[in-house]
Amino acid sequence: MNHSASKPDPMSKPARTLTFKCKKCTKPVTLFLQKVSACSHITPYQGFCKCGELVRHATGDKDAVESFVSSVDGSWAHHHHHHH
Question: What is the top-level taxon of the source organism (predicted)?
Fold first, then answer.
């Protein structure tokens, strides 16, 4: 039995949507994959809960994820930090 065929490859494209619980009302919120520039180190997701709360999630470079999630306004831009 070959189980690997039925499972999605984790190295393939990121999921288009994710479901997270809203911090305010705990309802499930669908987050949609955000389009980012090719140089971005993260895969950001964003969605609005029915209660109006903005829910954000991102995967990838830790520092870039933190700056994305912590930015409340829409002016988030990736700043390149060179780790040596």
Answer: Bacteria
- Cβ 58 vs Cβ 83: under 8 Å: no
Question: Does the structure show a pLDDT above 60 at 4?
Answer: no
User: Domain boundaries in the chain?
Assistant: 17-70
DSSP string, 16-53: SEEEEE-TTT--EEEEEEPP--TT-SEEEEEEE-TTS-
Owner of token pair 């499972």: 7
pLDDT at 76 over 60: no
Fold of 17-70: N-terminal domain of TfIIb (2.20.25)
